Amino acid sequence: MCDGAHTHEVAIGLKQNTEAVVRPALEAAKAAESTFGACQVLRKTANAAHNTADNAAKVFITNAKKRLSKFFGEAYSTEWGAAGWPNNSTGMPSTQAERFSLINSLKLHFTANPAHESVDMEVTAALAATLHTTISNARATLDQKVTESGQAKAARDAAETNLRKRLRGMITELETLLGAEDPLWHAFGLSRPADEETPEAPSFTTATPGGAGITHGTGMMRCVRITTACGFSSWARTMISVRWKP
Fold first, then answer.
1. Where are the alpha helices (DSSP H) in the chain?
2. Of 233, 200, 237, which Cα lies nearest the Cα of 219?
3. pLDDT per position in the chain (246 positions), as tens?
4. How many CB atoms lie within 10 A of CB 52?
5. Distance from C-alpha of 62 to C-alpha of 58, rounded to nearest angstrom
6. Is-contact 125 114, C-beta < 8 A?
7. Of the candidates 14, 3, 18, 25, which has an alpha carbon nearest to the alpha carbon of residue 163?
8. Residues whose CB falls within 8 Å of the CB of residue 205, separated by 6 or more in sequence, listed in order
9. How far apart are the first and last CA of the chain?
10. How far apart are CA 84 and CA 103, in angstroms?
11. pTM score, two decimals?
């Protein structure tokens, strides 16, 4: 559509949704989509790092339980509670937050009770402190990446909304400038209103690979075939049938 506008907008009198208006909206949408994708990857990485730290916490808690059972016995008691075990149980805490809190409690317990430490069992106040810091940093990083991902999604959605508005505006404007059988519809990558085979608008969206660098997609508009050299296949959901050549 952008290339069609570039070539024909002056001749046909396209005034509102020109290439100068639509192409920046497309580029902004592409950039926003790329940023959102990068944020999603960073969020996934941060979540994996947090899970790794939490798994290390589980190992430490398991070892600490074995060590402290030599002093407190196997059954839950006030001593276990004082050492930090929650929920009146010596079982593994069920949530990451509870495990994080227990690691800090164990750090304090082993600091106050060095006789309960065991280097051989890797249960010391120093190891607990290091682990607590690692988890704390991982939690902070994950929270930040979740926030950034949400912000990027909002920006992507706003850019998508603007792009849809511009594409729909161009099509509406073309309907006032071109006849139903005008071959210039194809110059804009659109099927003519008079073309016979126009599929019904789908109730879902898809984007599937086509042949040799072509991506086909489905979306919301009634136009059948949009061909553009803009190369942004992520926007398949904006049209009924889209065919991009990157």
1. 2-12, 19-72, 78-83, 96-112, 125-177, 184-187
2. 237
3. 887 777 777 887 788 888 888 889 999 999 999 999 999 999 999 999 999 999 999 999 999 999 999 999 999 999 999 999 999 999 999 999 999 999 999 999 999 999 999 999 999 999 999 999 999 999 999 999 999 999 999 999 999 999 999 999 888 888 888 888 888 888 888 888 888 664 454 443 434 344 443 333 333 333 333 333 333 333 333 333 332 333
4. 13
5. 6
6. yes
7. 25
8. 217, 218, 219, 220, 236, 237
9. 14
10. 8
11. 0.72
Q: Which amino acid is at 64?
A: A
Domain edges within the chain: 19-177, 180-246
Q: In angstroms, rounded to a whole number, what is the distance separating the alpha carbons of residues 242 and 206? A: 10
Q: Which two tokens stand for residue 113?
A: 């009770």
Distant-in-sequence contacts of 70-73, Cβ < 8 A, 24+ apart: 71/116
**What is the spatial distance between Cα 141 and Cα 132, in angstroms, rounded to a whole number?**
14
Helix axes 19-72, 96-112, angle to 10 degrees: 40
